[in-house]
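Why should sequence recovery work at all? Because a backbone constrains its sequence more than one might expect. Tight turns favour small or flexible residues, buried strands favour hydrophobic ones, and helices have their own preferences. The token representation captures these environments compactly. In the example below, the structure is given first.
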């Protein structure tokens, strides 16, 4: 991660504009390729989905992205992970997901996620041990553990 000190903090209503812009910047190309809506309403719905589980990825006071995850007794879910294009390629997502997986291993629970087909994040997830367990027309359902 090139000596970045990355932290997570709970998202607040003050983060919504940043998170909306982040979603558009990181997801529009994937959504368009999948034939999914990219209008403002669709982005706001997805942004607010599991909002209580949303964490802003920070380096100092600078916001770098979003890591949204949910935990229950039987499995953990990576709901969304988005890193600002200016910060991509520095291992931030790999670090965050890796830490999450170590915690899940310690708790003895599997981790699942859904990723749009064609998203380059699939390579990261496969490197981290995720396997495809189901598919839809537009996405892969993956699980590890």
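From this structural description, the recovered sequence reads:
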């Amino acid at each position: 991660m090139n000596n970045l000190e990355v932290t997570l903090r709970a998202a607040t209503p003050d983060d919504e504009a940043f998170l909306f812009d982040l979603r558009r910047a990181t997801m529009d190309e994937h959504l368009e390729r999948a034939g999914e809506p990219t209008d403002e309403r669709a982005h706001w719905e997805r942004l607010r989905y599991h909002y209580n589980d949303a964490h802003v990825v920070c380096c100092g006071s600078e916001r770098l992205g979003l890591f949204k995850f949910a935990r229950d007794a039987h499995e953990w879910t990576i709901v969304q992970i988005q890193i600002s294009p200016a910060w991509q390629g520095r291992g931030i997502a790999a670090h965050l997901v890796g830490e999450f997986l170590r915690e899940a291993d310690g708790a003895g629970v599997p981790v699942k996620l859904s990723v749009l087909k064609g998203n380059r994040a699939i390579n990261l997830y496969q490197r981290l041990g995720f396997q495809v367990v189901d598919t839809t027309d537009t996405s892969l359902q993956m699980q590890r553990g």
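A few observations help interpret the result. The mean pLDDT is 94.
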